[in-house]
Amino acid sequence: MSDIAPPVAALIEEFSKLPGVGVKTAQRLAFFVLRSPSDQARRLADAIVRVKESIIFCSRCFNITETDPCPICSNPARDQEAICVVEEPLDVLALEKTGVYKGLYHVLHGALSPMNGVGHKDIRIDELLRRLETGEFREVILATNPGFEGDYTADSIKKDIKGKLTLPDLRLTSLARGLPIGGDLEYADEGTLSRAIEGRRDL
Amino acid sequence: MSDIAPPVAALIEEFSKLPGVGVKTAQRLAFFVLRSPSDQARRLADAIVRVKESIIFCSRCFNITETDPCPICSNPARDQEAICVVEEPLDVLALEKTGVYKGLYHVLHGALSPMNGVGHKDIRIDELLRRLETGEFREVILATNPGFEGDYTADSIKKDIKGKLTLPDLRLTSLARGLPIGGDLEYADEGTLSRAIEGRRDL
Question: Where are the domains of chain B?
Fold first, then answer.
């Protein structure tokens, strides 16, 4: 980058720190910013700063929020006895869009990953156990991502709940696995298809 | 985005205005910023603002620069009689990296595209003709991108130079087309291979 103006080189470097953005993409983004109107570039810069200044994590569910507790945790209309455990705030968003679930959430902020050195202390498992111990929950939906790390995390949380807590009436569930709606049977991977057969239902 | 905190929704919206960034990618980028240290997010925001504040276009070659004229135009060691016409500032960067070319540049900021409504007035062709008319150039290298729009732009510029200017001694050239170094013959597309055969050289 020796021949490029330092402010441009700096912007390319900062862009390339974003996930999935290599040097070529960072260059393209930087030149797009260069050519875009000043107020558009300013809006992007402001949005970045404002998000860091105004967004906090809810002290109960650890979802992102501007107020603590978050709008979901402080909404008395939500089912206070159900808790859905997810890996990321985006998962909350996806579930909320369905409009089907009316309970509370718990955001782990990651999944256990022995391969990548992500252990119990790195995600919000202890906070979940404390919530379950002190609250009066009827059901815990373990909605981690379908896949090795998500399944391992759900299994680990299940063992913790069964082993460390005394909650005999607590129902532990996970989301159904099977064919995605609109998916084609012939294109489904073996794992999905196996689960779809195992979980087949009477008509 | 109704259930997401407004500052996060705003950041996702701004990110999704970047080229090649859809909503899903914008979400990923926004949550990455949310989790990254404050000073890293601040550096990205500052770099965006600084680039808009400090970067201008050189009044001679229209390359991006902090000073006018740019370091290349104001460097007396550069060959003042050669001018290389490129589409984008990144093309200047790519050519400079080779260290082979020692002349001046002219950045068009785009290519003619009748399909997309990009005409003569939208890119810096008139400015190029004025430079050629008033300067004393020996050679113009038309280094637009190999492809329909780039070739069309180069052809159009060639006609303008031949038709509107009286510069009988000016040499017009274009970059060689052929097999890329390190490329495999069997994977070369037909167009590239045709050019490689047509442009074959004696050993």
Answer: 6-54, 78-202
Cis ω for the linkage preceding B69 (within 30 of 0)? yes
Q: pLDDT digits over A178-203, tens only?
A: 878 877 777 778 888 888 787 787 77
pLDDT tens digits, residue range A46-79?
Answer: 999 999 999 999 999 999 999 999 999 999 999 9
Q: Identify the residue among B25, B38, B52, B74 best suited for mutation to test binding to A, counting A beta carbons within 10 A and taking the highest.
A: B52
Question: What ipTM did this prediction achieve?
Answer: 0.74
* Cα dist from A122 to A57, A125, A127, B184, whole Å: 15, 9, 11, 47
**Angle A142-A172-A92 from CA coordinates, rounded to 5°:** 30
Q: What is the pTM of this model?
A: 0.73
Among all residues of chain B, which has the CA nearest to that of A44? B14
CATH class of B78-202: alpha beta
Given CATH 1.10.8.420, say whether it is the number of domain A6-54: yes
